[in-house]
Each structure stands twice: as C-alpha cells, then as structure tokens.
Amino acid sequence: MVDLSWSHILIVLMVALVVVGPKDLPRLMRMTGRWIAKARGMADQFRKSFDDMARQSELDELRAELESLRHERPLAEVDLALRAPALGSDPITPSGRSSGVETNKDSSTEPISGTVANGPGA
Known about the structure:
The chain is mainly alpha-helical and 122 residues long. Helix content is 58%, strand content 0%.
C-alpha cells in the first residue's frame, strides 16, 4: 500500500489547488472520494465473494466426507456384534466372512445332575 504521511498529503493538496483552482477543488475532492468509495466497495465485494467460495468449498468437502462415511459404515462390525445373540451364533461381517469369534458349542446351560446339598446337614 502507498505510504503517505501528512506532509505528502499537504503537498498533493497544494499542487491540486494550483492546478485545478480553488473553484473546482471541492468538486474534484468529491469525485475522488466517490472513486475511492467505489474501489473500497468493489474490494469488499471481492473479499466477500472469495470468502463465500472458500466456505462453499469447505462445505462441499464435508458433504463428500459424510457421504463416504455413510457408504463405508466403519462401525458396521460393531453394530452386528451388538445385535447378534451372545451364545450360539457366529456374527458375519459385512464382507461375508466369519468374524472369527469362537463359540463353545459343547458347553450346555443344563444344570449338573446329581445330588445337590441343600445346606449343612443335608
């Protein structure tokens, strides 16, 4: 950016006063102010549109990432394991393979037959 000190601005105003004249100087200053305002407005509009494009790009990336996570379902195996019965079944993973969890098919839940002591002295 242009580095203008007060002395530089004073010199520019003196030259403008001599070149343009005191009669047209206020009109020139108004016109210059309008040009500067338009330039600032255009720069602000450019910055806002650039920020909007960046924000939209970030949102598009997040949407794509969410869609990929929905299709991948990284916790599908955990979901299947939670829904499967605790004993007697081998949960199948989404790939169609066995999860490798071994269940004890020889153990039974039947009570042990025989005499059961009902307490001391039975």
